[in-house]
Amino acid sequence: MKTWLITGCSSGLGRQLAEAVAARGDRLIATARSIDSLQPLCDRYPETVRAMALDVTRPGDAARAVALAESVFGGLDVLVNNAGFGFIGAIEEAEPDEYRPMFEVNLFGLIETTRAALPALRKRPGARIVNLSSGAGIAGSAGFGFYNASKFAVEGLSEALAQELRPLGVQVIIVEPGPFRTEFLGRSMMTAAREVPAYAETVPARRHYRQTNNGRQAGDPAKAVAVMLQAIDAEHPPLHLPIGPRAHAIAEQKLASFRADMSAWRDISIATDFDTPDQGSAVGTR
Questions:
Q1: Active-site residue, from 2, 45, 133, 134
Q2: C-alpha dihedral (199, 203, 208, 214), degrees to nearest 10
Q3: What are the pLDDT digits (tens) for 100-111?
Q4: 114 Cβ neighbours under 8 A, 6+ residues apart
Q5: Band of pLDDT at residue 113, cut at 50, 70 and 90
Q6: Catalytic-residue membership of 133
Q7: For this structure, is 11 an active site residue?
């Protein structure tokens, strides 16, 4: 029996995961900015589920959630950083007051929640930190640049964190979902108010995708959660976990493109060391 803390449980994959965790008998601190939607879950599992209001951007909320897990259930085994939202707009179109709040949630909120949970997690060898990234955290695309940037940052942070925690027996999993039928393209997606005509050939396609695919995504959230649970329970979980055919296609295309660039420019781009070791040593001592 594990004890979980999941952020963003009011909807989407966070809600699906919370339901699955509770149904299998694990203990859960389910959090959201408003806990009204979580009360039915608490009513169904009064012995093993507690709900708590948690805004990942509000100082102290995460620490209180961790303290609740320790006081009620005796510790913490799994942290799932799921809270987040998306943003559509060209880099030139968006204003700071539109895109900065997304970074506060997707990146800085994740950082502070993780930092608050680490002392408790380090007490539990075999603990897991699960950070929700996205296919958009693997490769950038027009109209998604700010969202890409927030998720790329999650990927880099998670990779470094995994190296820091590996000797302590705590594993990090980066979940990279493709499109799943959640509210992500609806209330979880913001859009830049301004549209610059110069980007008419690229960015409007992203806006159109949102309008025509919301509620029609091919991915089944329950199946995504089943994959996540299997990875979290594994003795040797993956660091990167793309979920769904689209996420895998994005990863494969990115790897192929990256490798093609490296191969084409390898001979030129690696010939950058000093001609003799002595030259490098001399510069290094100045």
A1: 133
A2: -160
A3: 999 999 999 999
A4: 79, 81, 129, 131, 161
A5: very high
A6: yes
A7: no
